[in-house]
Amino acid sequence: MTRKEAVQYISLLLGGSLVGANSFLAGCKATDKKALHGDDSAYLDEIAETILPETKTPGAKAAKVGSFMVLMVNDCYDEKEQAIFREGMQKINDQAKSKSGKEFTAITPQQRHELLVQIDNEQKQYMKNKKEEEPVHYFRMMKELTLLGYFTSEPGCTKAKRYMPVPGKYIGCVPYTKGEKAIV
Amino acid sequence: MPGDSLKANLNTKGVQQNSFDAIVIGSGISGGWAAKELCEAGLKTLVLERGRNVVHNKDYPTANKAPWEFPHANRMTKEFIDANPLITRAAGFGEDTAHFFIKDNDHPYVQEKPFNWVRGYQVGGKSLTWGRACQRWSPFEFTAPERLGYGMNWPIGYDDIAPWYSHVEKFIGVCGNKDGLESMPDGEFLPPFDLNCVEQHMQKTIKEHFGRYLVQGRWAHVTEAKEIHTQQGRTRCQSRNLCMRGCPFGGYFSSVSSTLPWAERTGNLTIRPFSVVHSIIYDEKQGKAIGVRVIDTNTKQAIEYFTRIIFVNASALNSNLILLHSTSSRFPDGLGNDSGLLGKYVMFHNYRAFASADIEGFEDKYFWGKNPTETIIANYRNLHKQDTDYVGGFTTFSGAYRSTPKEEDMEETIGGSYKDEMGEPGPWGVYMYLQGETIAKESNHVRLSKDKTDQWGIPQLVTSVGYDDNDDKMVKDFLEQSVAMLEKAGGKNIFHNDSKQPPGLDIHEMGGCRMGKDPKTSLLNEWNQLHHCKNVFVTDGACMTSTGNQSPSILYMALTARAVNHAVDEMKKKNL
Asked: How far is CA B15 from CA A70, B11, B45, B50, B303, in A?
């Protein structure tokens, strides 16, 4: 058996294991009640687009990361994680309002960027100091799902990375110049 | 016995119609080989498979799917994981491969000790999802248990099996380098995959400082299609590294892409899917097995098939189950089980230990394409003599890769430059993991449950298989040595872990029906025949006398081809 796939998967994205990856250990009950709904995806699209905006390559919104997050939170998170995620969505909007008196979706891209940079710093600080049994920060969840959704999407694979479905051969050692995209 | 009720509703359509020269139970990696060799020898052969049919390139629903075609980015839903806590832990399990594995609730068994039994019930079995490593055993591995006092000798040695390794290697296509190592003999190899630059660095450092050999493993990939491969309809491996979905190119070996279609072309093969084997029928008067009783999983009807010889290739533990359940007044404790050892001495490979590190530098180097193989550090323990406080050797699988960029190296972790940077290859990482020999022990066993049955009324298997002190010592030594090698290679952020995962997840369960010279201490002779029922051959993992430290599948294939050759000779001589 080769564990190559598994090893690369673990090292994917932010390091450490993904939220929900071991949720079965907690033995939570599946529920028919959806934590998030289709109309949450527009708001999540804006959060994702702020994390991974359009540059020379498409952004997270073009990759439909918002609806990906809705699906993943509903299908792969346990109830506790879903609650944290849901509250996190509210917290971001509350912070936007208390800073500028407007909803997150109504503030400028620059204001959104500044807000999420601040929340991201809080997240990093929290994750660094948290005890093992304490829950993951909501923004860590959002960032993780944004990266996962974007870099497995068609624009993410084909535009932001070098998509190679049938390489035809493998060459072990080639020169690399900074800026060249990763093979996927 | 739950089986007794079958006699009442037996639906035998006549011995004639249901007769074959040979019956093979199971269509996985060894069953496929039995079918190929038997059909080539001109024997009308029936292959019984408990799962559905899988046809090369027709039944690979995910083979050409892009990453974005998997709704959950290849992860399983919580609902699925909650319902299948066991099988979802199998290596390579995901949205892209789930259809080649069982679901937990369909196939219950009893874990007396934690044992995660990974199964794939379909034509091709686990050969569709196997790891593809094909190293030969060394002569040391056949003799070490008795020589170093921790087990019984095999009835055969390296020289007996070497020509059959060659026979198998040429047909399935094995790529690798001829390294001239005594602990990992060379074979009939196609060109190897490259080592990447960090793997070359590891190779050099480990040789220089430890005198150990990091080399390319030997893998069942066609890196150069020879005539024998094009005849099978297979072409060169395209370095997609999506093997476990089934390969449209036939780039790696499976029963489905290779041996079964080959057997079919002889006109001698009949495959019967949806056929759970209930038991092997033993005839007291003739003093041999005469057929196999199956249950059709769709109709639940019992059907009997008759034959001259039977190959049992149901996968290691299921082969034990079938034999234990094949009782008669001659064999009240299971077919051929005069020694009382059937189901005992079950073994596995120790896969608990893992180590990894970041490697600085080499930022101006990358690779091209996707590598489906891994490097190996050839066994360096307990080869000529015992040189540690435990017995047995181990193989170290390893590899180097460029991971995702790390946030701590970036100025911005939100926004455009973050996105662009995350699309680039990150720093190099290297990993090592253990494939360790375990000791054959009578106490590690499987048996039939006295009260629990499956959906066909067949007793469930009870697994009572666990680690021992020797395994713990090996894990400790492996981790110390691996960390030392990673340090010498300039590794940073070195991580090491004993997962303590239950046995079974290695998917290398072996034994229970071991080969040996003495019928008092073994079930099978040197030709994989039951000592006491010579027309029944067991050539899957159940036959193993010890585990060695190499991946076992190619040994099963070689043993199978060798046993079929013997069976055909004996039939010609009218001995069978």
From this structure: 60, 11, 15, 22, 11
Measured N-to-C along each axis, helices A109-129 and A40-51 cross at an angle, to the nearest 10 degrees, of 80
Q: Does the beta-carbon distance from B402 to A182 stay under 8 Å?
A: yes
- Which residue type sits at B95? E
**C-alpha pair distances (Å), A4 with each of A67, A166, B173:** 30, 18, 21
Query: Nearest to residue B71, comparing CAs of A69, A62, A46, A182?
Result: A69
Phi-psi region of B485 (alpha: psi -120 to 50; beta: other; left: phi over 0): alpha
**Is the distance from CB of B310 to CB of B535 less than 8 angstroms?**
yes
Q: What is the ipTM of this complex?
A: 0.92
What pLDDT is recorded for position A23? 43
Decide if A175 touches B, using CB distance below 8 A.
yes
Q: Which of B356, B421, B349, B63 is nearest to A7 (CA)?
A: B356
Instruction: Give the max Cα distance, chain B.
Output: 83
Q: Is B252 on the interface with A (CB under 8 A)?
A: no
Strands (E), B239-393: 269-272, 275-283, 288-296, 302-306, 309-312, 344-347, 353-359, 365-368, 375-377
3 state SS of B116: coil
pLDDT class of A29 with cuts at 50, 70, 90: very low
CA quadruple B87, B248, A1, B128: dihedral sign: positive
Tell me how far apart the alpha carbons of residues A62 and B504 are, in angstroms, rounded to a whole number: 43
pLDDT score for B401: 96
Q: Which amino acid, residue B392?
A: G
Q: Name the helix (H) or strand (E) containing B529.
A: strand B529-530
- The secondary structure element, H or E, covering residue B562 is helix B553-572
**Do the chains contact at A75 and B240, CB–CB below 8 Å?**
no
Collect all residues of chain B within an 8 Å Cβ-Cβ radius of residue A81. Answer: none
pLDDT by residue (tens digit) across B496-509?
Answer: 999 999 999 999 99
Listed in sequence order, the residues at least 6 apart from A4 whose beta carbon sits closer than 8 Å to its beta carbon are: B241, B371, B372, B374, B399, B401
State whether residue A147 sits within 8 Å of chain B by CB.
yes
Angle between helices B29-40 and B553-572 (to 10 degrees): 30
pLDDT at B10: 47
Strand ranges (E), B325-456: 344-347, 353-359, 365-368, 375-377, 394-402, 428-436, 445-453
Output the pLDDT for position A34: 84
Report whether A66 contacts A41 (CB < 8 A): yes
Measured between its terminal Cα atoms, the distance across chain B in Å is 31
Rounded Cα distance, B335 and B523, in Å:
10
Mark the ranges of chain B whose per-residue pLDDT is less than 50.
1-12
Please give the interface size between A and B, counted as residue pairs whose CB atoms are below 8 Å apart. Answer: 220
C-alpha pair distances (Å), B55 with each of A25, A56, B31, B233 = 36, 44, 16, 13
Closest CA to B311 of B527, B514, B53: B527
Ranges of H-type helices in B197-313: 197-210, 227-231, 260-265
pTM, whole model, 2 decimals? 0.94
B73 vs A152: CB contact, 8 Å cut-off? yes
The beta-carbon neighbor of B365 closest among A14, A150, A173 is A173
Tokens found for residue B105:
């609730």
* Residues in A 33-92 with any Cβ partner in B closer than 8 A: 50-57, 59, 68, 71-72, 75-78
Closest-approach residue (CA) in chain A for B401: A8
pLDDT bin (cut points 50, 70, 90) of residue A3 is: very low
* Angle of CA points A13, A70, A102, to nearest 5°: 95
